[in-house]
UniProtKB/TrEMBL annotation:
The lineage of its organism: Bacteria, Pseudomonadati, Pseudomonadota, Alphaproteobacteria, Hyphomicrobiales. This is GntR family transcriptional regulator. SMART domains: FCD, HTH_GNTR. Pfam families: FCD (PF07729), GntR (PF00392). It comes from Pannonibacter phragmitetus. InterPro entries: GntR_C, TF_FadR/GntR_C, Tscrpt_reg_HTH_GntR, WH-like_DNA-bd_sf, WH_DNA-bd_sf. Keywords: DNA-binding, Transcription, Transcription regulation. Transmembrane segments: none annotated. One of its GO terms (molecular function) is DNA binding. It comes from the Bacteria. Signal peptide: none annotated. The keyword Aminoacyl-tRNA synthetase does not apply. Residues 18-85 form the HTH gntR-type domain. CDD domains: WHTH_GntR.
Length: 236
């Protein structure tokens, strides 16, 4: 049975028509995108039921949905954990990103409403960079790329990309130097947006493709170095 929302925590209008399990899955997915739930984290049913104000049956349906999406995994006699991406996952995520983001940008209109969201994400990333809030810089970067997908005007594509974004954040979570990871890309995002607003959508898409290939190589290299470390050093 669905529990009533506590005072002041009523569901937003866009959630009210959704099944409860879908709503809670969306909120947990966002926690992954925001870096609150990190790779390998153990998820406590008791704590989550209390925090989300849902029954165990609902939470188990949420776990089923997110496991199907590849964000969670169940281990017999141990419980449910946030997935830790492997190298093949990283390669696949970046392949998908190039297939979705680059065509969306190449055919975009410079006055599309999502352009303002792209600029807002860059502004947020710069503000967080100045404050040294690198986890939030990563969240702003994900918001920038989600806005690129919105240029395609496809709600289904945007919904699918939300899942990709959650997996991407898990990839980011494998690396322990977020400044080195995110720092170089804040200004590159501004260059890409500048090309688009100047009317060179195809140039912006070409710049984005090169950027994504560079980011993929960087992350794979960092992942390989992490895997070569002795297990006791990785756990420190």
């Amino acid at each position: 049975m669905k529990k009533p929302a506590p005072a002041g925590l009523a569901a937003p209008a866009d959630e009210q028509a959704q099944p409860l399990a879908d709503v809670i899955a969306g909120r947990m997915r966002q926690k992954i995108i925001d870096g609150v739930l990190t790779p390998g984290s153990h998820l406590s049913e008791v704590q989550l039921c209390e925090a989300m104000q849902v029954s165990r049956n609902t939470l188990r349906e949420v776990f089923r949905l997110l496991t199907k999406e590849g964000l969670l995994r169940h281990e017999a006699n141990r419980g449910v954990f946030v997935v830790t991406p492997d190298m093949s996952t990283i390669v696949d995520i970046y392949r998908i990103r190039r297939l979705i983001e680059c065509p969306a940008l190449a055919s975009a209109h410079p006055l599309h409403p999502a352009v303002a969201r792209m600029q807002a994400a860059i502004d947020a990333a710069r503000a967080h960079r100045e404050a040294g809030e690198w986890l939030s810089v990563g969240s702003a970067d994900i918001a920038f790329h989600s806005a690129i997908v919105e240029l395609a005007d496809s709600p289904r594509l945007s919904a699918f990309y939300a899942q990709v974004s959650a997996e991407l954040r898990l990839v980011f979570g494998l690396l322990h130097d977020p400044e080195y990871l995110h720092g170089p890309y804040v200004d590159q995002n501004q260059i890409i947006l500048g090309l688009l607003t100047a009317g060179d959508a195809k140039g912006a898409a070409a710049k984005l493709e090169a950027y994504l290939l560079q980011a993929e190589r960087f992350i794979l290299g960092a992942y390989e170095r992490l895997e070569r470390k002795p297990a006791n050093k990785r756990s420190r």
